[in-house]
Amino acid sequence: MGKRARTSLDTAVVDVWKREVGELSTRNFAHRLGASEDLVLRLDLFRKLENHRGCVNTVSFNADGDILVSGSDVRRVLFWDWEAGQVKLSFHSGHNHNVLHAKIMPYTEDRSIVTCAADGR
């Protein structure tokens, strides 16, 4: 078996973006970057966002990449201006258990989100 070619940084960054917006399947993403030590070693902390009071279980960008949504164990959902490091909106999700996933729906002008939680809703 031959060695897998190293992924260039430019290609890796594009693949991460494609995965986030749904243009690259999970299987293809894992195959391309799952063992990319080069990419992992180049990652760095840009900003630490602090406002949740429990474990953060999910983060997801909108399609434009300027808004981040996060969900936590304390059942709150936050919308962030991640570049400024500030919360734009914070609300209780309505779930009875930990928010496990939150996603801003595409083609809704960032006005609709979908969440799921440990309560099965």
Automatic annotation (TrEMBL):
UniProt entry tagged with the keyword Repeat: yes
PROSITE patterns cross-referenced by the UniProt entry: WD_REPEATS_2 (PS50082), WD_REPEATS_REGION (PS50294)
WD repeats (start-end): 49-90
Keyword Repeat appears in the UniProt entry: yes
InterPro entries: DCAF8, WD40/YVTN_repeat-like_dom_sf, WD40_repeat_dom_sf, WD40_rpt
This protein's UniProt keywords: Repeat, WD repeat
Protein's name in the database: Uncharacterized protein
Organism: Ilex paraguariensis (yerba mate)
